[in-house]
Fold HAT C-terminal dimerisation domain-containing protein.
Amino acid sequence: MVKEAFVEAADSLFRDFKNKAEITSSIKALQLSRSTVTRRCEAMAEDLTQQLWKDIGDCQCFSLQLDESTDVSDTAQVCIFIRMVFTDITAKEELLTVLPMKEQTRGEDIFQSFKNFIEKTQLPVYKLVSITTDGAPAMVGRLNGFIAKCRQDDAFPDFLNYHCIIHQQALCAKMLNMKEIMNVATKIACSIRARSLQRRLFRAHLEKADCDHSELLLHTDVRWLSRGKFLQRFRELCPEIKEFFRVAGQAEYMQLNDGQWLLDLAFLTDLTNMLNDLNLQLQGKDKTVINMISSVNAFKRKMQHLSLKLQRHDLINFQNLASELEMQGMACLQLDSARYTEQIDNCLSEFDKRFQDFSLLEPVATFMCYPFREDADVDSLASKIAKLFHLNSSAVEDEILTLQADIELKSRDHGQFWNLLTEVKYPNMRKCAASLTALFGSTYLCESSFSHMNIIKSKYRSTMTDEHLEVCLRLAVSSYSPDYASLADSIQCKSSE
């Protein structure tokens, strides 16, 4: 269709071109047969793969992130991304491979598939710094999980492993002691959305009421962000939901007339929106672990501050809660603030518990950002750096002291600071900087690639082979650009009628 439209438009587009006939002829000669398009995709993906393996060979170290999802044909696909750090302490993120799991997806099965990939491609595993996964038993099981199997294999070096920060943040949010609020809201929404007639009548009711929204949302536990959007929409439509049940002659849910339940719903909506903001900050490409730790720490400080403001009945940051109080004709001082500060404190405790692994990195990350702090505990810092990255503690301590006294380095721009350190004088500091830069804080890239996978291998293309799925996925997510000139020179074109 695109080719046909292009041919039709060519007469107008190139009307004033002297070589109009030549351009039109070239358009008509475009090769669009199914097998030709397949070969072109394979050739471009192969070119991208060659660029990737060149960078893997050139990089100083790398880290991996893994996640698993099932495609439309019920084949489990393990997606692996690599973050490479080069000698100038710059990083690049790329899709390493996609491993199809035809049978079981136990930790040992994933490991064996990855091991076969390593042997086939000669991946330089000795450069590995860390592996980031989700918290599934198949990945982090103590004895038979993927990480455990890697540690048991002599081919792997000592490496760090982390549980995806985004997953842990979502798990912290689930620890809020307000499950009953969520369950009731979901039950009410489902009672409206479950039947087509009921859903159409509710839409019509919202239209007559001239509401800003025309639909009631649902949410899924798999997508954390949907929870916040669902709660916000549900709370905004609560009056219309009550009126709809009354007009339809249906039994109302008593919670919709319970003032305390509505206050709890408003508070949960506010807090969930704040957690959503944090979740969005943690997502995206090229997010370093330092960025992510900073975002989590900033959120914790914000929650501590808001807890104190709640104790003073200051609701400026809790707009839904303040609005609900106003609708019920209550003053802020009448609010049972202790009920909600307890929820915030529980959330903060869960954050401290779940982010212990990353908290060990914090002093090292702080040093990498501010290496000339005079109040730094050099002994403790050197010990932590040596333990994390398997270095000699005494040598690290000596380099830190030398670095902090280096007048020339103090005058340099911090943007490329760690690249200015010479390998001869600061070998351990450069290794520390490269290793910290290589760390993945989440499995976001894997999860975003699964969205591409669901589009590429849809129910209309369910017979796509695993090889072609990887080809298309690489073309969709790669930051490399194919060498089109070289590829064009390497093929002999034939006209496609």
The chain has four domains: 1-30, 34-163+443-489, 171-354, 359-438.
